[in-house]
């Protein structure tokens, strides 16, 4: 038994010994595998660092991410009723995105190849453009350089200048073929682009055949793509076109007077941008957000393009202008001018403004110009804000209110004698109805407005200067400061200063000389026969009276909206609120004096009442007519003007018109007839007169 047990133990020991021997073998095998892997890694690292190291360093240092942007369609413009006035027309375009690194020769080749498939207009091709195209060829440039002294020592710009001069002087581009001329146009567009910027090589008129041909050969035309161009269209008719303004073409690029500002805002030189009036004023809203594409480049070649932001069309804007009413008022002014042009050869135009006196909203801005030499009449709605004229008696309401404010008359003590003003050493100054003194009469302030007494206003001016009129007196003691006092009174109503309308290019009017030597002109200023104003200023002035003293900023913008769908505006993101520029101080009794006078102008019973023509218009109108003595060269003329509001007891709308250059002593009522027609159109197109 003992022997058996010993042998058994030995057998067990042998088995354990075999198992222990296998462990080192396995560990050694693993060590070999790890060693081989590390060796392979070291070899690979050595290969990357020693053999390919320079290549990867070069690639890394020459890799970059650039940003390419593409314009989106501009926002739409709608009228006050939601009618679409200005939209976009899309057209197929041939575009060129300039690579990061491209030679003149490469662009030269692309331009020449592209002319095989498309045709472009060459009417704007200049000699400089031809010369630049010629030198785009490396072979041509090298030939020219051989004839330039010390070419190798000249700077790039100096050498190029001499190359251009040589090409010109030797007539090297005098005989370009029609196809080469087209290539020259294309080359210059490509050459003028920034790296990764996109220019339109052909923005409109691309035929289906041209599109197909270019599309089939894009691989041979690096940088050329088929894209979309946008241009403004006017489904609401041309009556709004002038007020809407213009957008520059890709060829025109950024306006020169705003170039640096727009470049600082991120525009490219060849971008389309609003260049006048509404398109310019609300460019930030209308332009939209560009599509952003991240371009990964390596060794100056585009490796990958990733659209980072899909872009957003411009916001839509809604105007205060009613399109139908605007068109009607424009036609009224055009027809009115045509009706009197035959007997009034010096009439330069006619203008009208219609506003809401409580908000400043402009319902219509209309006007026409007439070429005095040819008689041709053209639309000029913007003339209502930038053409100034001596307007005449329409300003007398402001003169009376200024006198009331300064205390030279009061609501209960404002009677003065209507009489010719006879000053020492000057001819008498009179009212239109009392040139001989046969119609002398006492007049209250409202009655003076009713009959449009000039001499009443002249006496107010003298009282403002601390003088009381007596026949034969001199104005030698009158201070020129009277000009400032009266103009300040007028300015508070908007006469003689910019109204603040949200359109560029507004005129402030014109002030006549106001030195001591001009003191007699202060009397002319008092009844509107000296300084000049715009028709818009007249509208703001009469609005201030109509609403009881609040001078409001006129505006054509009602609201801004997100870009909508199917020709409809999106949600409102901005609403224009009435903006009070200043308040004309006055008691209720003082305002009643002025308003009563303006009512009597149309409804008074004095035989010399000036606005009786509008007496029967419903709802009732209050206002003031104006006749100013003017000249065209040496020919005496008159401005016929008018300001008004209605209904008299609850003003909803104001109308101002001006017809400058009418024949002297005309009996025409063209100004009053135009006002009458405009009110009829307003109650038809914009607001119902029911209840007034």
Structure explained in plain terms:
The protein has 692 residues and is an alpha+beta fold. It is built from 22 helices and 22 strands. Strands 2, 3, 4, 5, 8, 17 and 18 form a seven-stranded mixed β-sheet that branches. The protein has a six-stranded antiparallel β-sheet with strand order 11-10-9-22-21-20.
Please tell me what the overall shape is.
Answer: elongated
Number of distinct beta strands = 22
- Tell me the structural class: alpha+beta
> What's the CATH topology label of the domain at 323-686?
Beta-lactamase
CATH structural class of the domain at 323-686:
Alpha Beta
What brief labels describe this structure?
transmembrane; 22 helices; 692 residues; membrane; alpha+beta; peptidoglycan L,D-transpeptidase activity; cell shape; PBP_dimer_sf
Write the layout of secondary structure elements.
Elements: H1 2-51, H2 53-61, E1 63-70, E2 77-78, E3 84-97, H3 104-114, H4 127-136, H5 138-145, H6 156-169, H7 178-191, E4 198-202, H8 208-216, E5 224-233, H9 241-244, H10 259-264, H11 277-281, H12 283-286, E6 291-298, E7 301-309, E8 316-319, H13 323-341, E9 349-355, E10 362-370, E11 377-379, H14 383-386, E12 388-389, H15 396-406, E13 416-418, E14 441-443, H16 445-451, H17 454-464, H18 481-491, H19 521-526, E15 533-534, H20 535-546, E16 550-552, E17 557-561, E18 572-575, E19 580-583, H21 588-603, E20 622-632, E21 635-646, E22 653-663, H22 670-685
Parallel strand pairs: 2-8
Antiparallel strand pairs: 1-6, 2-3, 3-4, 3-5, 6-7, 8-17, 9-10, 9-22, 10-11, 12-15, 13-14, 16-19, 17-18, 20-21, 21-22
């Amino acid at each position: 038994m003992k022997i058996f047990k010993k042998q058994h133990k030995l057998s067990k020991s042998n088995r354990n010994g075999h198992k222990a021997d296998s462990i080192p073998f396995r560990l050694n095998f693993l060590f070999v595998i790890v060693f081989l892997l590390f060796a392979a890694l070291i070899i690979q690292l050595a290969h990357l660092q020693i053999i390919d190291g320079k290549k990867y360093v070069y690639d890394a240092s020459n890799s970059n991410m650039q940003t390419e942007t593409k314009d989106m369609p501009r926002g739409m413009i709608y009228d006050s009723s939601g009618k679409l006035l200005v939209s976009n027309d899309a057209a197929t375009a041939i575009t060129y995105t300039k690579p990061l690194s491209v030679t003149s020769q490469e662009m030269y080749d692309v331009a020449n190849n592209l002319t095989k498939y498309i045709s472009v207009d060459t009417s704007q091709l200049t000699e400089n453009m031809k010369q630049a195209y010629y030198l785009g060829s490396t072979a041509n440039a090298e030939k020219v350089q051989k004839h330039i002294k010390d070419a190798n020592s000249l700077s790039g710009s100096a050498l190029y200048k001499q190359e251009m001069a040589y090409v010109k002087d030797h007539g090297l581009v005098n005989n370009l073929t029609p196809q080469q001329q087209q290539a020259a146009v294309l080359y210059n567009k490509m050459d003028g682009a920034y790296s990764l910027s996109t220019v339109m090589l052909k923005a409109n008129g691309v035929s289906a055949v041209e599109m197909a041909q270019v599309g089939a050969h894009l691989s041979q035309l690096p940088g050329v793509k088929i894209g979309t161009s946008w241009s403004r269209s006017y489904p609401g008719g041309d009556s709004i076109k002038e007020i809407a303004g213009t957008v520059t073409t890709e060829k025109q690029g950024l306006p020169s007077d705003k170039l640096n500002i727009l470049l600082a805002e991120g525009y490219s030189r060849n971008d389309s941008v609003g260049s006048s009036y509404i398109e310019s004023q609300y460019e930030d809203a209308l332009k939209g957000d560009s599509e952003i594409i991240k371009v990964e480049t390596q060794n100056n070649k585009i490796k990958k393009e990733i659209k980072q932001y899909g872009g957003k069309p411009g916001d839509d804007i809604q105007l205060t202008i009613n399109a139908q009413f605007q068109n009607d008022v424009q036609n009224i002014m055009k027809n009115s001018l045509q009706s009197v042009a035959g007997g009034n050869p010096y009439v330069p135009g006619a203008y009208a403004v219609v506003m809401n006196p409580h908000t400043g909203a402009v319902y219509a801005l209309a006007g026409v110009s007439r070429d005095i030499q040819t008689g041709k009449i053209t639309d000029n709605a913007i003339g209502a804000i930038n053409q100034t004229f001596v307007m005449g008696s329409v300003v007398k309401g402001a003169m009376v209110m200024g006198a009331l404010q300064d205390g030279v008359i009061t609501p209960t003590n404002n009677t003065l004698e209507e009489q010719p003003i006879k000053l020492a050493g000057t001819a008498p100054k009179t009212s239109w109805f009392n040139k001989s003194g046969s119609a002398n009469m006492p007049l209250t302030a409202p009655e003076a407005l009713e009959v449009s007494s000039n001499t009443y206003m002249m006496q107010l001016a003298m009282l403002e200067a601390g003088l009381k009129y007596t026949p034969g007196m001199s104005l030698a003691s009158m201070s020129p400061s009277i000009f400032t006092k009266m103009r300040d009174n007028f300015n508070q109503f908007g006469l003689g200063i910019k109204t603040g309308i949200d359109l560029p290019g507004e005129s402030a009017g014109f002030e006549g000389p106001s030195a001591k030597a001009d003191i007699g002109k202060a009397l002319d200023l008092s009844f509107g026969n000296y300084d000049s104003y715009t028709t818009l200023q007249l509208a703001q002035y009469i609005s201030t009276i109509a609403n009881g003293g609040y001078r409001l900023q006129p505006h054509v913008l009602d609201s801004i909206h997100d870009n909508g769908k199917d020709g409809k505006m999106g949600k409102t993101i901005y609403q224009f609120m009435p903006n009070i520029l200043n308040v004309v101080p006055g008691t209720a009794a003082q305002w009643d004096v002025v308003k009563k006078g303006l009512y009597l102008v149309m409804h008074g019973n004095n035989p010399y009442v000036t606005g009786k023509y509008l007496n029967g218009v419903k709802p009732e109108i209050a206002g003031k007519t104006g006749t100013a003595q003017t000249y065209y060269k040496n020919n005496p003329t008159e401005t016929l003007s008018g300001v008004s509001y209605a209904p008299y007891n609850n003003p909803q709308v104001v109308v101002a018109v001006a017809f400058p250059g009418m024949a002297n002593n005309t009996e025409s009522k063209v100004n009053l007839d135009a006002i009458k027609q405009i009110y009829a159109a307003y109650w038809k197109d914009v607001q119902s007169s029911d209840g007034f």
